[in-house]
Design goal:
By secondary structure, the chain is of the alpha/beta class. The protein contains 7 helices and 7 strands, in the order E-E-E-E-H-H-E-H-E-H-E-H-H-H.
């Protein structure tokens, strides 16, 4: 099965892609056209890079979710190892790595962070910026010129919000629901 679409969600120590750390990366491969979701998801946590810092506002925000943060700390691996594993996982079972579609909510956050890690670690990035799809913009475009419904609020959230694995799966469900609801609209 080919899964050209990859929804990635990250948890971080701040909002500055070049200066703050990613502490969790989770992703699901899916096929937008068929609606299939690969049950073999990616979910790994990263040890902080010494070149980056923890934003104090974000530290205070995380202090409100100690159980989720403790779960992340307990699974941390070296960043290089995680990024190499993400690449290997992403291209497995895909015919052309160059055709991978990186999905994020929003891409300017997730893709920027992921790209900064590949750059800093000197690793090739399998997710080309031209193939990055912003979930929110894509949904708005599917409904344009009408207002898009708040599908993410309509669907029950399964798991823990701000656990990247559960967030990524919810985002896939939202995209697939939006696609299903708007099929055929582009032909009209």
């Amino acid at each position: 099965m080919n899964y050209p679409d990859i929804m990635i969600d990250i948890e971080t120590t701040g909002t500055q892609p070049e200066h703050t750390n990613i502490i969790q990366i989770a992703a699901y491969r899916f096929n937008l056209e068929t609606g299939d979701v690969d049950p073999k998801y990616f979910d790994q946590c990263l040890m902080p890079l010494p070149t980056r810092f923890w934003d104090e506002d974000t530290r205070a925000w995380w202090s409100k979710m100690p159980d989720i943060l403790d779960g992340i700390w307990g699974r941390m691996k070296p960043a290089r190892q995680v990024m190499e594993a993400l690449t290997l996982w992403a291209v497995t079972d895909n015919e052309a790595a160059s055709a991978l579609r990186f999905w994020g909510k929003p891409t300017h956050f997730d893709h920027s962070f992921i790209s900064s890690y590949y750059r800093e670690l000197g690793l090739p990035n399998p997710f080309h910026f031209r193939n990055a799809v912003d979930q929110n913009s894509w949904i708005r475009a599917r409904y344009f010129p009408e207002e898009a419904p708040r599908i993410e609020k309509e669907l029950d959230f399964i798991g823990d919000e701000h656990n990247a694995r559960d967030d990524a799966l919810h985002q896939v469900r939202v995209v697939l629901e939006a696609y299903e609801r708007t099929k055929g609209k582009e032909a009209a």
